[in-house]
Amino acid sequence: MEKQREDQIRRLVAACARTAVTPEEIHGDTALIDELGFDSVGIIDLVIKLEEAGGVPLDDDDDFADHMDTFGRLTEYVDSVWSRQKREV
User: Fold this and answer.
1) What are the angstrom distances between the C-alpha of 88 and each of 19, 33, 62, 65, 82?
2) Which residues contact 33 (CB under 8 A, 6 or more apart)?
3) Quick one: which of 54, 78, 82 has its CA closest to 67?
4) What are phi and psi of 28, to 5 degrees?
5) What does 30-81 look like in DSSP terms, one character per residue?
6) Are the C-beta atoms of residues 16 and 33 closer than 8 Å to each other?
7) Local structure of residue 19 (DSSP, 8 states)
8) Which of 38, 58, 63, 78 has its CA 20 to 30 A from that of 85?
């Protein structure tokens, strides 16, 4: 994954987190719910921002919730969706 893309996702996660955190404090094993305080509203806000940033929807069929445990898993999922959509265009 491109560092620029990971940094973009990291900034969006930090902006939507319910706890005060800087992008630099977020690492692959950072727990989104337990450490960053994401709740259902925060997750919806994050999904909207990720969809706007990537220009593609994060499909329900891909079961987004399964990838919401850590920043690393979220980043891998978002990168795969964005990359797949790029290839299809």
Assistant:
1) 37, 32, 16, 24, 10
2) 39, 68, 69
3) 78
4) -55, -35
5) -BTTTTT---HHHHHHHHHHHHHHHTS---GGG-GGGG-SBHHHHHHHHHHH
6) no
7) S
8) 38
Q: What is the pTM of this model?
A: 0.88
Rounded Cα–Cα distance for residues 14 and 10 (Å): 6
Given a cut of 90, whether residue 62 has pLDDT beyond it is no
pLDDT at 21 (0 to 100): 96
Cβ atoms of 1 and 86 closer than 8 Å: no
What φ, ψ does residue 70 adopt, rounded to 5°?
Answer: -130, 160
Q: How far apart are CA 36 and CA 13, in angstroms?
A: 9
